[in-house]
Design the sequence.
């Protein structure tokens, strides 16, 4: 069921992209250059077409499938590949096995303050 809803969600996303690109804008660029009549500026909204209704339906379907997929994944307790991977440990050398503290290297005056000569 999860895979079916995931495929449905993917198809709905692609369909929504295509539907939005097929629609013409309400403030199309042709109106800027004077090709539209002045009455359309003050006219009421036009009737909703089939494409806009279909766009709204697909958008609602995407919202519903998104919520379903989110809830379903949280219930499934999916794990990552990183969780099951074995972490290799670095080999321990003889210097790391020693418990005695190591004295720091002496600092010469020329490397400590190279600007004062």
Sequence:
């Amino acid at each position: 069921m999860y895979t079916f809803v995931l495929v449905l969600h993917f198809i709905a996303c692609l369909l929504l992209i295509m539907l939005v690109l097929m629609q013409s804008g309400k403030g199309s660029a042709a109106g800027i250059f004077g090709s539209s009549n002045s009455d359309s500026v003050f006219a009421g909204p036009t009737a909703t077409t089939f494409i806009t209704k279909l766009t709204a339906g697909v958008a609602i379907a995407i919202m519903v499938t998104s919520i379903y997929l989110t809830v379903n994944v949280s219930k499934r307790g999916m794990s990552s590949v990183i969780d099951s991977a074995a972490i290799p440990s670095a080999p321990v050398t003889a210097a790391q096995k020693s418990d005695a503290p190591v004295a720091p290297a002496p600092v010469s005056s020329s490397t400590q303050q190279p600007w004062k000569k």
Notes: The chain is about 55% helix and 0% strand. Residues 42 and 86 are 68 Å apart (CA to CA). The helical segments are 2-22, 39-42, 50-76, 81-84, 94-97, 109-112. Residues 50-76 form the longest helix (27 residues).
